[in-house]
Amino acid sequence: MLTNVLTKLLNIEYPIIQAPMAGGVTTSKLVASVSNAGGLGMIGAGYMTPTQMREQIRELKQLTSNSFGINLFVPNEFEVNEDEIRSSNQIMNSFRDELDLPRKENIEVPNFNSVYETFMEQIQVVIEERIPICTFTFGIPSADVIEELKKHNIILMGTATTLREAVANEKAGMDIVVVQGSEAGGHRGNFIDKDQESLVGLMSLIPQVVDNVGVPVVAAGGIMDGRGLMASICLGAKGVQMGTAFLTCIESGAHQVHKEAILNVEGDTTVLTRAFSGKWARGIKNSFISEMQAHQNNLPSFPVQNTLTQDIRKKSGEQHNAEFMSLWSGQSAALAKSQSVETLIQNIIEEAKRLKNN
Fold this sequence. Notes:
By secondary structure, this protein is of the alpha/beta class. Helices cover 42% and strands 13% of the residues. It has helices at 5-10, 28-36, 50-63, 82-98, 112-128, 143-151, 163-172, 202-210, 226-234, 244-247, 256-263, 287-292, 304-318, 341-357, and strands at 16-18, 41-44, 68-73, 133-137, 155-160, 176-180, 186-187, 217-220, 239-242, 270-273, 281-284. The protein has an eight-stranded parallel β-sheet with strand order 1-9-8-6-5-4-3-2. The chain starts with a helix and ends with a helix. The mean pLDDT is 95.
């Protein structure tokens, strides 16, 4: 039951994928530890330059001879609305004052062409460095990109938050579909269905998708232990992708303040917010999210708002101040532990085997 079409395809021992968390969480140490412990380690390369990607890939090859993968953000056309930018930046300046940061008047925002060029350069690095597995979030790459990656025998995984998105991923040629339930921490991966329509719970999403696609399905969102793994498999998934559970591991590159916020969470205090990046994402509620609540609908879209909050998030981290950091977390944060990757994976597998034999 734990060795299946997915483990064979990805060349891994256990059907456990570490979620590719962009922004520094997926250190080489974390990724290699997951791969060395029998799961699939993933680099979250969404915000990386092609050079940074290449450096980390080469570092990883020194740390593991096992399979690992990389995740990229698919660029979507975005509007640069000057009024929204000005208005959001004014609000950001008040936060900058609180954090003793210099105010910003002239904002350099990304444009679609430069984002797309970077993405194409990232694809080139994946091919040149012979990465065996490449996954995508926020959409599906063009037919040309998919064809080029397939020519090099790279296994492709897409992210879906609804049945429609899962079917679109399979049609486009993805070998595996990761279904992201509304419980998942971090950014929502929706790209066809609107924000509200994409908030389907994982236990509803898995069987719908499994019944309608022919490729292996991986479950993501709120899975923290062997119970989550077995529940997903019972519903037809071939494996799981876990983020929050790995984020609090010793090897993770998440800020200590972020780890502690998850480890000390009481009940479910996660909310969905656009405040940090302009794209809906789930994280632990703090002052920044609360104060930005009233402005949510008028913020610039991703990645513009992400650029506007960058210095605030960074300074907040430097000050060990949890109130202005993006504390991404799934809804099962209360189950998180501070432990090594090896311990986490072994515990998941032992619990899954016990459940299987009961």
